[in-house]
Task: inverse folding
């Protein structure tokens, strides 16, 4: 079970966007995620008439390493670590390590 999932509200804990908060929009692979509004870069593109694509400068979000983000705990209003616990019926659930609450 992965600790960070699509739709989680995360805080960047290191790098040039440190302290910014956003939702995970996509999981790229095991170690990288794309967060809305975080790690944006400007890319210069040539026009491509075959794809009906205009040229210019576009802003896009690049992947950020999972180790550089932490899930946001709304109760403590701070970034928190995640643990995985198995319930009595055999289901695995994620929980905040700071206060032990289950992540919905």
Result:
């Amino acid at each position: 079970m992965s600790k960070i999932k699509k739709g989680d509200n995360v805080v960047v804990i290191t790098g040039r966007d440190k302290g910014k908060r956003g939702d995970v929009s996509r999981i790229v692979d095991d170690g990288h995620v794309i967060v809305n509004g975080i790690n944006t870069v400007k890319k210069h593109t040539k026009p491509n008439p075959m794809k009906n694509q205009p040229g210019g400068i576009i802003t896009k979000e690049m992947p950020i390493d999972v180790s550089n983000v932490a899930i946001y705990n709304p109760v403590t209003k701070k970034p928190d670590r995640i643990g995985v616990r198995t319930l009595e019926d055999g289901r695995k659930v994620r929980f905040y390590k700071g206060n032990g609450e289950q992540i919905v």
About this structure: The CA atoms of residues 83 and 95 lie 5 Å apart.
